[in-house]
UniProtKB/TrEMBL annotation:
Organism: Streptomyces xiangluensis
Protein name: TIGR03619 family F420-dependent LLM class oxidoreductase
Keyword Flavoprotein in annotation: yes
Top-level division of the source organism's lineage: Bacteria
Keyword Oxidoreductase in annotation: yes
């Protein structure tokens, strides 16, 4: 199994972002397979929709959020082996040219280790702040994937859609990965799972230990992706999966290791991204937690 870890991006860990390079090096040395960021452009004081699309509150831990592109670029320059992922960027918030430029730069700095993961988000206020229509975010995601594909694989490049337009321009700087970095997509609804099946190179599911571990649900979602992929004349085995593992406060490292092993046994998922921001407030604690978890998982 491959175990990766979130960079110090949120909550009290974000106050230690000056140690991002140190964190990345030490966690790589401990045996991590990957390092990750996610995306929170803002946490509304009075949200219309709450965290994950539920209720009307957002965890206080998300009030502090460092820039994902900066952190991933630092990690890219500080490491040699680990993959560098986004689980997930709220991609429709970004203009495609700027998003492609940032991700291309990270892929080149890391010599082809980027795993870009995208989602459509759940916060209307984030879309309001970006001047983008929240109600059309799924359609915008579809066009964004087409625009990124064009920018990354053609020169000159252009794209014209209903919601996104990119004029013909010189597009000489390409990612290290060819023909382009893979598209990993977050998904829960059947519409989003269909996007994974039809467009994704990978799927980004989620569990929270111990409060939300629905292995039966993961199995069912994977079966839906497989069915929809076959309907789209795609090979389901070509669609990878990387599971995000969030950790509740007061959760033992052994509990996390046990869930990872159980999910692997039931689903076959081999790559896990662990985010300790809720459970481990310090950078030093997060480094130690990563090393301990890798050792527990490797014990079998």
């Amino acid at each position: 199994m491959k175990i990766g870890f979130a960079l110090p991006q949120y909550h009290k860990q974000a106050l230690g972002i000056a140690r991002t390079a140190e964190f990345a090096r030490k966690v790589e040395e401990a045996g991590a397979a990957s390092l990750w960021v996610s995306d929170r452009n803002l946490a509304a004081v009075n949200p219309k929709i709450g965290y994950g699309g539920q209720g009307n509150t957002i965890p206080a831990e998300l009030n502090l959020a460092a820039d994902p592109f900066v952190l991933l670029g630092i990690a890219a320059s500080a490491t040699e082996r680990v993959l560098l992922g986004t689980h997930v960027l709220i991609a429709p918030l970004y203009p495609p040219v700027q998003l492609a430029r940032s991700l291309t730069s990270i892929d080149l700095i890391s010599e082809g280790r980027l795993l870009p993961g995208f989602g459509i988000g759940w916060s209307p206020e984030e879309y309001e702040a970006a001047g983008t229509d929240f109600t059309r975010r799924g359609a915008r995601m579809n066009e964004l994937l087409d625009a990124l594909d064009a920018i990354w694989t053609t020169d000159p490049a252009q794209y014209s859609g209903e919601l996104i337009s990119v004029p013909l321009h010189h597009s000489l700087l390409k990612p290290a990965q060819r023909p382009r970095p893979p598209f990993y997509l977050g998904a829960l609804s059947e519409r989003a799972l269909r996007r994974v099946a039809e467009r994704g190179d990978g799927w980004l599911p989620l569990v929270v230990v111990p409060s939300y571990v629905d292995i039966d649900g993961l199995v069912s979602q994977q079966a839906t992706i497989d069915r929809l992929a076959r309907e789209a004349d795609r090979d389901p085995s070509a669609i990878d999966a990387i599971l995000r593992v969030n950790i509740d406060a007061d959760t033992t490292t052994q509990q996390v290791a046990d869930v990872i092993k159980a999910v692997h046994e039931r689903t076959g998922i081999e790559h896990f991204m662990v985010d300790s921001m809720y459970a481990v407030p310090s950078v030093d604690g997060s480094i130690a937690h990563a090393a301990e978890l890798i050792a527990l998982v490797e014990k079998g």
